[in-house]
Amino acid sequence: MAETKAKRFSFLEFKGTAENYLFIFPAVAIFAVFYIYPFYEILNLSFHEWDGIGLTRTFIGLGNFKEIMQDKVWWTSMWHAGYITLIALIFQNALAFGLALSCDRDIRARKFYRVVFYLPPVLSEVVVGLIWQWILHSGIQSGEPIGLLNFFLTKAHLNHLVHNWLSDPKTALTCIALVHSWKGFGWGFIIMLAGLQTIDRQLYEAARVDGAGPFRTLKDITIPMMVPVFLMVMILTILGSMQVFVLVLSMVGQGLVYHTEVPVTRILLSMTGLSRFGYACAQGIVFGFILIVSSFTLNKISKRFKQDEAR
Amino acid sequence: MKLKIFLFCLCCFFLFGCMQNTNSNTITVWHWMTDRQDTFEKLANQYQQLTGIEVKFELYAPSDAYSQKIIAAAQARVLPDIYGILKEKEKFAVFVKSGFVADLTEEFQKNEGIWEKSLFAKALNVNRFEEGNIYSVKPGIYGVPIDVMNIQMLYNEKLLKKAGIGRPPRTFDEFIEDIHALRRIGVDGLISGWGELWLLDCFASNYAFNIMGEEKIMATYRGEVPYTDNDWVEVFRIFERLRDSDALFKGIVTKNNKYAEQDFALERAAFAFNGSWCVNVYNGMNPDLEYGAMLPPKVNPNLPMRIWGAAGSSFMVNNSSKKKDKAIDFLKWLTSERQQVFLSAETKNLPSNRHALSSIPEILSQFASAMDDITHPSTWKYNEDPLVTETFGKEIQSISIGERSPEQAAEEVQRIKIRQLERAKNRR
């Protein structure tokens, strides 16, 4: 009897529920219009052949995805993005951690260094690319190198190191990866510095009392305590580095053969160069899927670390 | 109650504020030409004083961003009254077939074709679709060229003199000899923005015309002649010779044209491969630069050298614009002799009106003198598949950096060509 009563329509209850929905409606509407609908449209387009302008789209099922599986250049570009990411994971994060450690100490110009180290991420990627293109320029005028790096190498009597940096397949991608790392270490530095500052100082004091040196403290306190932060920075580095493309465009134009192709430049080419919007959307879906899988994997690892720590 | 009225008024304001501006005395033009904005505005002022019609030139640069904006505007059906399409003929055809571009044939032919006759035919051909064209577009003229251009080789007079070279080379062998002479005095040979594949494709296409002629090129595009044919290998060999004779400026394959222009203007290389728009660019970078224009030196003396050239920029009229007639009248005025002389003098581009040629500077005259030798992909009966064109450019890059031989490059391009032909067949 009581159950039947509870199920009866209650205006007050309805009003309360409606009010709740009303409050979340703007957020849901924005999310639906700007996230769900575009995603649905991209997914839908990936099953079609469309030139981007015409009124007709041809449904081709999984045709675009099958083609991606056989597209050698696409997978090469994926490999290149992986290489840039690997360099960023090692070089960029090592640099960020090293600098964060230095700034975590009680040094005089700590605030100044924090600002200086955070400058590269603030700069526009196009500007950074063009500046580095000028630094790595390989031209010669009146017997003297024009590029800053080659000029200094000549002045330092290291002529054997003077190189065609951006037009040599052996160095072009590495140069781009290093410039990307240089540009990106700043935010890793900020996150790691914040992580370092959350470590209880008493732990260090206790270790010092027990006779631990700086290396032992770093190995047994700092690094274990920083593992969750490292993992978060790693996820962000992977997501950021895999999607690099502005630097590539501004440093090597449409690319050095296929040696500097990355996934986003291929997607751009499919869309604007080849007028294959459907194929470009399918590439975007595959690329997004790979990024999501890698993020989830790292997230899982991160959780396992946290559980181990808790034990 | 007051609050409700206020909210109602606010909604009305937003709704009416978002409605399209239908001022019938304003024509909107979208373009990408940063160097011409001031001149366009001056011309718009003159036109307003003359007719009372306001012309708003809205600049969207760079050209890549502009192209994307045009495509997005077409998708959303919000194209302006006048706009330009920067893409290849295939894309232009899609715009026409989708009803976004007005057919101007009748306008051009009015009064015994006076408007058509005043413009360079080759420039107009870029916007023309012939009877039985492969894009299945209704034959007609769909755009108005506002200037013309061609892409040639340029030489630095001072550097050539310094190397003891009396006159610019006429054959490819002479060119290579000149390169050796220039290298002896420490001057780099050829600079161009080959980081932009279209420019590299253009250079290769010139030599393809010189080596095998138009018919064979078209047969290749149709899939009847393979890229592994000796003549095509010969085209690839040009780049091998340039590489082996150290003729190419260091880093040329990843250089954007803007930087290549800077290198030539600052006398870092003796030769450049660039379009007639460079006159304005070089003038801004180094007004004292002494240079001349020449056709790329021939490899085959028996066939003509064909260079790319056509309408530098064209304007199209939006077919669904309510101010279509006014837009056409404005374009007629813009391409008449007086306005074309003004535009050419201000922007140092070749005018599209043939009567305006009499008052252009010497260097532009040199460019203009080659107008009989021009050709352009937009005027060809067949065009290559974009993916094959990309592979073609990339393979030339790899020859230029010593990664591949001409034969290997030819094989790779042919492999992609076969794949694309099969794809097209399956699609049909």
Give the SSE layout:
The complex is a heterodimer of chains A (311) and B (428).
Chain A: H1 2-7, H2 11-45, E1 48-49, E2 58-59, H3 63-70, H4 72-104, H5 110-117, H6 119-122, H7 125-135, E3 140-141, E4 144-145, H8 148-155, H9 172-198, H10 201-209, H11 214-242, H12 246-252, H13 263-273, H14 277-310
Antiparallel strand pairs in A: 1-2, 3-4
Chain B: H1 2-17, E1 26-31, H2 37-51, E2 54-59, H3 63-75, E3 82-83, H4 89-97, H5 105-118, H6 121-125, E4 128-129, E5 140-141, E6 144-156, H7 157-162, H8 172-184, E7 188-191, H9 197-222, H10 230-244, H11 257-265, E8 269-275, H12 278-285, E9 291-294, E10 307-317, H13 324-334, H14 337-347, E11 350-351, H15 362-368, E12 374-375, H16 386-400, H17 406-427
Parallel strand pairs in B: 1-2, 7-8, 10-12
Antiparallel strand pairs in B: 3-10, 4-5, 6-8, 6-9, 6-10, 6-11
